[in-house]
Design goal:
Helices cover 80% and strands 0% of the residues. The chain is mostly helical. The radius of gyration is 16 Å and the shape is globular. The protein has 7 helices and no strands.
């Protein structure tokens, strides 16, 4: 029997779908490690890695949103975020000859949007789970990463493999920690 706090639909959604959060974190962690092991990777291959990650993250997010659409009024928030990730993932594969500046702008927009959404979710969870500061920190790092990319699009072309790897590893670890945290709240 679940002791999830029914008064907070966000923690309920997360706790019931902790395994999706875990897989999203694992996907981000794998993506980040792949970029570290290939520091001179071309932007084309980086584009494919990112496209695959964004696509998988979008599909898993859509699954979570659809599963919770009848029981939670905030399901559309998850759906919008997931669709955005899915669209970016598809766009990467449909337009593989995209210019470096446009690629970096896509990544910058994605990083800023993801960071803002993480901060919003963390603020909503601050009274329900411990460690929400880590989620906020991940959101802040994501926003900083996006702003740096906007400011230096050409120089960011090569450095992006390392920055994106660091970001993805941190994001992956944060999601893995979050998954187990909300899973524990399910069994309290």
């Amino acid at each position: 029997m679940s002791n999830v706090n029914i008064a907070n639909p966000t923690i309920d959604i997360l706790a019931q779908n902790w395994w999706i959060i875990l897989w999203r974190g694992i996907a981000a962690l794998i993506f980040g490690l792949l970029t570290w092991f290939n520091p001179v990777i071309t932007l084309y291959v980086m584009l494919l890695f990112f496209g695959g990650y964004a696509f998988v993250d979008g599909v898993l997010g859509i699954i979570m949103a659809i599963k919770t659409r009848h029981s939670h009024q905030d399901w559309w928030f998850l759906l919008i975020s997931a669709i955005a990730n899915l669209v970016v993932g598809i766009a990467v594969f449909v337009m593989p000859v995209i210019s470096v500046v446009v690629l970096i702008d896509f990544l910058a927009i994605w990083a800023v949007a993801t960071g803002l959404l993480q901060i919003i979710v963390a603020i909503g969870l601050r009274k329900v789970i411990q460690g929400e500061g880590w989620i906020i920190l991940g959101g802040i790092l994501s926003i900083i990463f996006g702003v740096i990319l906007f400011m230096n699009p050409i120089q960011g072309g090569i450095a992006i493999t390392w920055l994106m790897g660091i970001y993805a590893v941190v994001f992956g670890i944060i999601n893995i920690v979050l998954a187990f945290s909300v899973r524990r709240s399910l069994h309290k």
